[in-house]
Request: fold
Amino acid sequence: MKKFKNFVLLLLIFVLLLGFVMPLASAQWYQDDSTWYYTQLNGNNAIGWQNINNTWYYFHSNGAMATGWIQDGSTWYYMRSSGAMATGWVQDGSTWYYMHSSGAMATGWIQDGSTWYYMHSSGEMAIGKININGNWHEFNTSGAWIGPTSQPPQLAIGTVLLDKDGVKILYNGINVSSWSTEINIIIENNSDRSIMVQTREESINKYMISASISSTVTVGNKANTSIRFSNDALEKSGITEINEVELYFLIINPDTYGTIFTSDNITLQVSTPKPLPPVIGTVLFDQNNIRITYINMTQDRWDTNLNIVIENNSDRSIMVQTRDESVNGYMIYTSISPTITAGKRVATGIRFSNDTLEKNGITIINEVDIRFLIINPNTYGTIFSTDIIKIKP
Reply:
């Protein structure tokens, strides 16, 4: 009995000593799926700005570490993929930005060393000829200011867009209606056969937006027609003014629908080019020069859409599809298959049928699991596939 009491006493002393030498609770990082969090000494997840080991991080209200662009008040910041706040020059896709030592995105004139640069109100570094407060300035391709310059010429009515094999297409202005924005053109067919004219790989201000045109012109005649873009599609892409249009003209045999020829890439510089604003949202994927950003969720009578922007900063065209889609743990098919040429963006949606959601008892979407498949649009071969990505609207 005495030995047992001594054993208990020794055990209590050991436990007390162990309590003294055991380390105190400490703040630490942890990862949940692909998202990082930081636990503070009080056991709660950090939120807002946090200085950790002399590096600034930002944590959303749910504790998730921020990456990419964030807005705090009226000021924009860029958080690197590590979560660290960026300072100095930042390349986002093919666009350069400058972040002050405070992390705030720079706008207006800045001086780096002995070189002057101009950052648009969107933060994008200016290149080429830019009108600043009524005066034209020129910047080289690295953004360095060259000096004052003259106004660049604008696209004039009657400008020849295509002149090949007896087919001529001329620019004839822009019309805007309640439903669509139209690039007016005149097609002259001086060839020896009837033709049909369509367009391919259309983009406005670097956003891929499908157009509607399919005009047939018989031998020796002209057609006054238009390339029509939906205003709804422009709005979804955040386009309020057309600055630049890029496309290919496809000349077709209207009897066989065979291709007669395809034009080179044609650029219509309708007005002074303006910088692309940064895409604001939750970055779902950012590798191999492909970025996919979740913007928001919208719903209409028929569908629920997870709106995303896909940026292709690679050197080749890609097609993006989805696989293994599930909503709240239920497998639900969706259809998405946009093609994005090199250096372009597309605003699109991952669409789920409301009827299908209802059949699965889903009234509120809490979580979507999805995998993106990046495809070569010419061969339909897989370039790469992402891991499963979680979207929490």
In short: The chain has three helices and 33 strands. The radius of gyration is 28 Å.
